[in-house]
Specification:
This protein is of the alpha/beta class and about 350 residues long. It contains eleven helices and twelve strands. The strands form three sheets. Strands 3-2-1-4-5 form a five-stranded mixed sheet, sandwiched between helices. A five-stranded mixed sheet has the order 8-7-6-9-10, sandwiched between helices. It has a two-stranded parallel sheet with strand order 11-12. The longest helix has 27 residues. The chain is globular and about 65 Å long. Bound molecules: 5'-O-[(R)-(carboxyoxy)(hydroxy)phosphoryl]adenosine and zinc ion. Zinc ion binds next to helix 4.
Length: about 350
């Protein structure tokens, strides 16, 4: 079974061919990050235009590198939600046209389900059910992965996502976009105890999280230092922030595992590349004897291999779409139903 995956939800135009669900034949990513850096974040209109320019060559390169023709494909999987609507529409319309012209099934993939599936590419022995911590630029969620296409949300952030918190704090500390990886690098030279930061709790909802108070605390400390003429120790602030975010996420995951009884835990999304978080989660899992699965760094961020992989499991479960498929800026991750559309 050969599936083409297409991803265009944010600032990466990506295409990939995956064989038999987990075997990677090609993965091409055309990143626009350096272009958006000038503006300190993703400019949606610019992202849509670049996707339009890049998508054909990106898909062609993915097919060529996999040594596959469109005729050989069993289906075309595409990210249809969540993300920037204009950006998503480019991938969705391209995939619809390709699938229709070639007479191939079209498979609509939820971006977060794709992030979770990145783990199957790296660890084909991982099988549902398990518990997954999803941490990306726009989402922070604890998900019960009951089956490849059946998800239950256990907890989520009430305000900012962890990635958003990293990115905004990086910006006030003077690091360029995308800030998360800059915080990670800077943190290696900082003292994580130097700036005590709050660890917010959401009253009455033990598995929910909040990151906006933490972000505000960092911003206030930086502004206060600027007003009083003190120098801020940016690497130590980065280290303090990273340690606090990692502690919050690890403690919530530990609690979710205790409540649900899962001993298999996975991590997914761009922030799962964070070295402090990876270390903290590994230590927690080692302490309890849990098995921890994390994507390799190359599959943590946005890519189309994860979309092709998740699309393959959906194809096997009969979850396809017809030409009326639309893109949605947001949509809950839940159980997927077989059938067209
Ligand atoms: O999953 P992703 O690539 O895109 C979304 O679906 O949002 O996640 C992007 C997020 C950004 O906030 C980025 O700063 C963050 O992941 N990120 C990191 C690291 N690498 C990427 N955050 C912390 N440490 C990293 N090493
Ligand atoms: Zn993503």
């Amino acid at each position: 079974m050969l599936l083409l995956g297409i991803e265009s939800s944010c600032d990466e135009t990506a295409a990939s061919v995956v064989e038999n669900c987990t075997s990677l034949r090609s993965s091409v990513i055309a990143s626009q990050a350096m272009e958006h850096r000038k503006y300190g974040g993703v400019v949606p209109e610019l992202a849509s235009r670049r996707h339009c320019e890049n998508i054909l060559a990106t898909v062609q390169q993915a097919l060529d590198e996999a040594d596959v023709t469109v005729e050989m494909l069993d289906g075309v999987a595409v990210t249809y939600t969540p993300g920037l609507i204009g950006a998503l529409l480019v991938g969705v319309n391209f995939a619809k046209g390709l699938a229709y012209a070639a007479g191939k099934p079209l498979i609509p993939v939820h971006h977060i389900a794709g992030h979770i599936a990145a783990n199957y590419l790296a660890h084909p022995e991982l099988r549902p059910p398990y518990l997954c911590l999803v941490v990306s630029g726009g989402h922070t969620m604890l998900v019960e992965v009951q089956d490849y296409t059946v998800f239950r949300l256990l907890g989520t952030t009430r305000d900012d996502a962890a990635g958003e918190c990293f990115d905004k704090c990086a910006r006030v500390l003077g690091y360029p976009y995308p800030g998360g990886v800059q915080i990670d690098r800077a943190a290696q030279h900082g003292d994580p105890e130097k700036y005590p930061l709050p660890q917010p709790h959401v009253a009455g909802s033990a598995l929910d999280m909040s990151f906006s108070g933490l972000k505000t605390a960092v911003i206030n400390t930086v502004h206060h230092a600027a007003q009083t003429g003190e120098a801020i120790d940016a690497p130590s602030m980065a280290a303090s922030l990273q340690t606090t975010v990692a502690r919050i996420l690890t403690e919530k995951t530990e609690l979710a595992a205790a409540q649900t009884g899962y001993k298999t835990i996975a991590m997914a999304g761009g922030v799962s590349a964070n070295s402090g978080l990876r270390r903290a989660m590994q230590a927690m899992c080692d302490r309890h004897g849990y098995s921890l699965y994390m994507p390799p760094l190359s599959l943590c961020g946005d890519n189309a291999a994860m979309i092709a992989c998740q699309g393959s499991y959906q194809f096997l479960a009969g979850i396809t779409a017809d030409e009326s498929l639309n893109a949605y800026a947001s949509k809950q991750l839940a159980a997927m139903l077989p059938g067209k559309g």
